[in-house]
């Protein structure tokens, strides 16, 4: 690499870092200024001590876990079947899984409310449990592009067809093949999908607000409109969670190298 | 009725007929090879026996019961794949025990059988290893053990040696044959390598264009090929047209084409040889115990093998020699 290219590389890198890091630094710095004249963690202690924060955060974590479960149950068999039996359908399935990126969440949630309101044929919004379920379905849809891509990429690294046939010749049925052969070999991919889903669900506002569920996203918005320092502390916490998830993806990928065979 | 019976099997993918009226009877404990070039339908036949493909028509019976329509996991068949197909997330022992676990065998039973199988394939200490820690040959042996562990009725081997290097290939094929003999398991082996098929089979089915061209013992297939394709595909061959053979050998041969294996042609006048051909040596390949010569006989290329003898150096390129062969060693070729 020539000296000039190297210098350009560094300039671009420093510019990028400044672009992302400066606002973050400012944000963090401001969130520490709740007490006049000194840096303190007052905003953080206030937030973390807020019972509503604890309730909404726990709720969102639970919803994220349910969403991940739905996502895995929906996406792993689908991606497997498309790879195994319907490779011609892959572009269509990919297109469908991309739709949530172009259809705004507000459209999805209004559709849900119209279809499943209390006077509809399936009044899911009539009960708290039903609404929670609807919200989890909605989250599953929002996370679909990431989950599907992650799992599909994971399946590319194993010889799905031959492994399936090997298991079949040993007497295994479809459920056994999925649970004991396919899923364990795409676990790292499923985990990256799961962490992305987690990050999406934790911060999601539209679905939760319009279905009127006590999730973390609406709480974040409400605090942001009413408090001076706390929203910034919350933002820092939210960033921390997202980065933690990204770190876990890396960790899961590294962990997998010990158990997975070279193909 | 034989143990494994395939009758009038037909299979087409779209308009492409890959298997045409294929019939084969396999006795219990027999080792059968399906031999042919790629695309001849041999793997498709195997996959229909395994249940991975459904025939368009025809029947496959194993031990007297028709298996067509049964799912692969209901057929009690062991299969070994070219790509090993070991489960990467399981240890060697777990791989071998997989079929037994699915059958619901007890833990003690599985452990005992896995140990027995690992001893059989000569890897008794590798139970705790993962597949990626083994060499290709070891992985394929584990795959064999995995296929055999649930005591299948039939063992199917789909080009199991193709991904291995030459030396491992030879030793593993001998090992496969020894294990097959020891267990007495009915086996179908698919290969495109004629040497492999000749060396380990009880009988060989030579396939061409979806048809079984010839079924016979390796000895029959090699020495009495019934079609031109079989003669050409199995072993090396010198082909003469009948009139050519008459002209150069001075004998009347009747109709059709004739062929002679390189080892049937002798350098010089051999006793018992009734056809003598004047020839010019064009190539000499010294292969150690065997010397392979190529000679020009009135415009026809003839290759022959002679054993190396320390007191008789091979002829030089360009030397004029006499070749001889016995008329009974000539193979008459069909159309």
**CATH architectural label of chain A:** Orthogonal Bundle
Mean pLDDT of chain A: 89
**Helicity range of the residues of chain A?**
over 70%
* Strand residues, percent of chain B: 25-35%
Task: Tell me how many strands of chain A there are.
Answer: 0
Number of domains of chain A: 1
What's the architecture of the largest domain in chain B, going by CATH?
3-Layer(aba) Sandwich
CATH class of chain A: Mainly Alpha
Could you tell me the CATH topology label of the largest domain in chain B.
Rossmann fold
Task: Pick out the low-confidence regions of chain A.
Answer: none
**Count of separate DSSP helical elements of chain B:** 9
Number of helices of chain A: 12
Strand content of chain A: under 5%
What does this structure look like?
The complex is a heterodimer of chains A (263) and B (335). Chain A is mainly alpha-helical and 263 residues long. Chain A has a single domain (39-257), classed as Orthogonal Bundle (MetI-like fold), CATH 1.10.3720.10. Chain A is built from twelve helices and no strands. In chain A, helix 2 crosses helix 12 (230-259), helix 3 (51-84) crosses helix 6 (128-156) and helix 9 (187-203) runs antiparallel to helix 12 (230-259). Chain A is globular and about 75 Å long. The two termini of chain A are 34 Å apart. Chain B is of the alpha+beta class. Chain B folds into two domains: 4-233, P-loop containing nucleotide triphosphate hydrolases (Rossmann fold, 3-Layer(aba) Sandwich); 249-333, RNA polymerase II/Efflux pump adaptor protein, barrel-sandwich hybrid domain (OB fold (Dihydrolipoamide Acetyltransferase, E2P), Beta Barrel), CATH 2.40.50.100. Chain B is built from nine helices and 18 strands. In chain B, the strands form four sheets. In chain B, strands 6-7-8-3-9-10 form a six-stranded mixed β-sheet, sandwiched between helices. Chain B has a five-stranded antiparallel β-sheet with strand order 13-17-14-15-16, with no helix packed on it. Chain B has a four-stranded antiparallel β-sheet with strand order 2-1-4-5, covered by helices on one side. In chain B, helix 2 packs across helix 3 (107-120) and helix 3 (107-120) packs across helix 4.
